[in-house]
TrEMBL record:
It comes from Caballeronia udeis. This is DUF2867 domain-containing protein. InterPro entries: DUF2867. It comes from the Bacteria. It holds the Pfam family DUF2867.
Amino acid sequence: MENPTVSVTAVALPASSHVAQMYAHPNLADAYTIRLPDNATTDPELLARFMFSHQAAWIGKLLRVRDALVAGFGLKTSKRLEESARSERDKHVSFFRIYERTVDEIVLGEDDKHLDFRLSVFQGAREEAEGGGRYLTVSTVVRCHNLLGRTYILLIAPFHEMVVRSSMRRAARIGWPTAS
């Protein structure tokens, strides 16, 4: 039987998440959820920072391949985003710009000439009828501006799912940060 604390499940975008209504017709919209331990922090920014700082090495290698492929198209690379994030750490999580913070959610993302995307790290409790407990849901919505954006999303979508699921499972195995 699979351990529910490391099981990542595809779900609908949470209705109360700010990204759920962000783009009228997104080119990509997905969400994945995992149960949080009862003693995990309730701070979505801390949960996001933890998850992104503990990613598997293969994700960094995949980003380097992505950067090499997209640089010729004039798209923002992760290296370029990391450089700008260093000077404004309080406005970024990893190399993602912070767009919004609430008590339950942090919305991250970036805009580029081919697409805009937002990533939500949302934590909340479920009713006993829904399995009870607290859950972390990572949602992504993307709005493409042109053929390059639509082609890019088509090519990276399978990798995107693997990265999100892996990042959530790895953070759970390491152990989410606890409430102070």
